[in-house]
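Case study B.
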Amino acid sequence: ESGALNQVSRMLNHTLSRAELGHLLESSPPRTRKILWELLDKKRQSKILPFLGDELIADVLRDMSAEEVADVTVDGDIDIDDAVDILQVLPEKVTQDVLNVMDDQNRQRVEAILSYPEDTAGGLMNTDTVTIRADITLDVVLRYLRRHESIPATTDNLIVVNRKDELIGLLPISILLVSDPSITVREIMETDFHRITADTPDDQVAQLFEREDLVTAPVVDGNGKLLGRITIDDVVDVIREDADHSLMSMAGLDEEDDIFAPVFKTSRRRAVWLGINLLTAFLASAVIGMFEATLEKVVALAILMPIVASMGGIAGSQTLTLVIRGIATGHIRNNNLSWLLSREILVGLINGLLWGSAVAITAALWFSDITIGFIIGGALLINLVIAVFSGSMLPSLLKSMNIDPALAGSVLLTTITDVVGYLVFLGMATLFYNLA
Amino acid sequence: ESGALNQVSRMLNHTLSRAELGHLLESSPPRTRKILWELLDKKRQSKILPFLGDELIADVLRDMSAEEVADVTVDGDIDIDDAVDILQVLPEKVTQDVLNVMDDQNRQRVEAILSYPEDTAGGLMNTDTVTIRADITLDVVLRYLRRHESIPATTDNLIVVNRKDELIGLLPISILLVSDPSITVREIMETDFHRITADTPDDQVAQLFEREDLVTAPVVDGNGKLLGRITIDDVVDVIREDADHSLMSMAGLDEEDDIFAPVFKTSRRRAVWLGINLLTAFLASAVIGMFEATLEKVVALAILMPIVASMGGIAGSQTLTLVIRGIATGHIRNNNLSWLLSREILVGLINGLLWGSAVAITAALWFSDITIGFIIGGALLINLVIAVFSGSMLPSLLKSMNIDPALAGSVLLTTITDVVGYLVFLGMATLFYNLA
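Model:
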């Protein structure tokens, strides 16, 4: 048995790559995860930290002393930007303790990046730049590089700076390798590229990388001084998290949460979301309750009313999803939102007329009552138009109030389509059947 | 006025980058888009094709002859993999016409990639590899590279092949630049890396790039012969589309659709989704209709019944979203699904008891009727558990039937939670009030 254990331990510590091991831990339920983790060497444990999600990192670091965390994060095998990402998972007080036990040099490097918010170019960047001057020849550049023990694997450009450390150009390695060694950097360096400042939001950085097919990009401060560089692997994480964020938030989930979190942690989180939705469900019930007398007289209304509410919810969430994604990718802005709004309203009208008629005919035949057909057809049309209107406008409205549209949008939208759906349908019925 | 037009035209043709122009066109409503497009030079039009979405490309190419399309796609300024992506947008017959008017060399290059499905490594790859032999010195490599006019900008590795063109290693440029020129490629080349075969699905390629922080990776055939290489920019597109796909499909939208498609095109697409949902809404109504007699006697049931259905829908879609994402990222597999299922059922039970009690008390007080409290509390509990069970199991069930879980999952889930919600609540009421 101990032989089998040794085999597993060897696999974990040697055969699997760090990324594979991180993925294995992320995919394991709590108990398995704990066993696997304890089979790892101390050194190996620290090396796979950058490959774990925020929640797992927090779990792992909770049992460590400040000295241990400091050792683990700046042991030379973790990129400085990854180390900062790890520290940012910790409570602020703990981070301070860890900084206090670091040596001066490491503390300064970490603090330089910590000073930028996590979701900006400054928070994404690394400080491992290879810089050169413009007035040297390529031959000198090649000899200078050979004096390095190593350069970062993801180096597609050497960064050209002047005496004041200001960014003045980029020398692509692909150009360096095919050019005559006797010409100077200045003659072939690129000067036409985007300067990313440290305060640029990370989603704009991601859009730039995606649009321009970048692999790395230098980051400068407000005066054009070089601070560091961003590499595509960190941008890929931003793109993935950004896209996942919309999907998960719309269901009230957090994309950073551990999928295999234990029962009580998961229950607590879900409970909040269900509670909020319960309030909106009671609101809808209260609206229905206003028409108790009508429902008592025409029970067919109770049978049909969910159709009006649910079709509104479906149509609205289509528009909402489209607009939330369009805003996130930068395709929808204030200047084209009004075109989109009119298009959506027309689409709502067309589909409202189409499916409103279908529902009207079906309901009229089902209950042998033409009036109920007119009522439900009309209510469906009105609810669809209001649904697509709300779906178009809610995201930018919420954004202007600094509320995350992906998180709040779907709850608010369902509330609107439920309330409007029941109100219009039962209200119209009360009028048409002269029951008021 | 013509001066202003000239200015706009100059901006479109010269100032904006191709990527910026592509983004501008994607973000423009149809009429603006048409005007902008016609202001572009013919040459410029072709150059921005790779920066447009599939639907826009199809619109643009529709008016071109086969000769024009052939010119545009293989004019030397578009990567061959991008050219193939463009051709794949066209109907098969048109693609064949275009291939027929190409010269032999271009046709062979295009057909080599076209022979692989679009969503595999073969469909993603490019054929612009820079290959070297293992037995030469780095000095020879550097001189060999200098004989090239250019090498692709995204070249982080030179690919080492043997006489039979079989992939045997990678020489990272970052190692080449810092190493002693007199040593041979064989001494420092990397041999420990994943071999991607041409038939690997693109989402697996994306997971590999993301996990191992790759910038490029070589692609081989079944015998290890080098076919081409995949670059990170194409992988980023896969990651973005994959994540967007889950989000958009759950609302019945297609991530490839043009956000600014005209009214009738949009209406037609949405109508299908609304129609499917209407059928499920009628199914729910039919279930309610089975309890017409009960509803007639206890109208409070009509007021409260949407709460049971809607809470089930919310709880189920949380689990469904989690599982769909987990499967897409590879975190959820058959071996850990059973752990997740038990966790979800426990979470459903806990939240069912919590919110079931809350609803029970509220309903009992509202209608001064303890029986209705018991009924709704019990129905809520049962519906939540069935909802999380369905949300956990539906994705892998649908997947095994080759149905896209993101597209069909949410409709099916809502149908289940609506039907079960109404059935259990009204059924229990019928029993408890002795109305059967």
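The mean pLDDT of chain A is 90. The remaining cases will be described in the next quarterly update.
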